[in-house]
Amino acid sequence: MKYGIAIFPSKRVQDFANSYRKRYDSHYALIPPHITLKSAFEADEQQIDQIVQELQRIAAETAVIPLTITKFSSFYPSNTVIYLKVEPNETLTALHQKLYSGIFTDQPEFAFVPHITIGRDLSDGEYFDVYGQLKMQTVHFSETADRFHLLYQLEDGAWTVYETFRLGKENA
User: Fold this and answer.
1) How many folded domains does the chain comprise?
2) Which of 21, 91, 154, 158 is the most buried (most CB within 10 A)?
3) Euclidean distance between CA atoms 123 and 3, whole angstroms
4) Is the distance from CB of 67 to CB of 84 less than 8 angstroms?
5) Catalytic residue status for 96
6) Structural domain containing residue 69
7) Keywords of this protein's UniProt record, alphabetized (predicted)?
8) Spans of the chain, pLDDT less than 50
């Protein structure tokens, strides 16, 4: 089965992101707005039990994570993905690194750029039009994430929560 690990921002941020995603993100119906911590990976039932135990340990030793969302940005020219930029911080980066070490032997496909995708699979013309408008907008959200989620992919391609992990020793 295919799994992934993500943080879901607050409803306020999700509503803001979805106001754009419903028009510009081909994955709008498959997963809520999120920050990917570990991209899709395969695991069987035996492996997932071990992974859940490891994620509980990681969550217990990770402090809550400040999230500051500051602007619209893009991965162009690599691709036409438009996203809300989440400012990197030590806690978020350390958590990402833990999810690619220890029992997690795979390596990330891309450098870690914390973000919330709001547009993908856009033609070049559509990308330039949409991004040209969005990058002029002022965006600022500041909040704290106190949990992350192990997700799994359903047969129709949608993602759903397998288990939620609260951050900090008091939540272990």
Assistant:
1) 1
2) 21
3) 29
4) no
5) no
6) 2-163
7) Hydrolase
8) 172
The pLDDT value recorded for residue 170 is: 58
144 lies in some domain: yes
For the stretch 19-69, pLDDT in tens is 999 999 999 999 999 999 999 999 998 999 999 999 999 999 999 999 999
**Count of helix runs (H) and strand runs (E) in the chain:** 4, 8
Helix runs in 106-161, H state only: 124-134
**Which positions ≥6 away from 147 have C-beta within 8 Å?**
7, 59, 164, 165, 166, 167
How far from chain centre, in Å, is Cα 119?
A: 14
CB 114 within 8 A of CB 36: no
| Residue 95 structure tokens | 């958590």
Do 34 and 7 contact (CB within 8 A), yes or no? yes
**Catalytic residue check, 115:** yes
Given 96, 115, 140, 149, the catalytic residue: 115
Catalytic, out of 27, 34, 96, 140 = 34
Q: Which residues, other chains included, contact 25 with Cβ-Cβ below 8 Å and sequence gap of 6+? A: 117, 118, 119, 120
Q: How far apart are CA 131 and CA 128, in angstroms?
A: 5
Tell me the C-alpha to C-alpha distance, in Å, between residue 59 and each of 21, 42, 64, 86, 115: 29, 21, 9, 20, 20
Find the CATH number of the domain harbouring 26. Answer: 3.90.1140.10
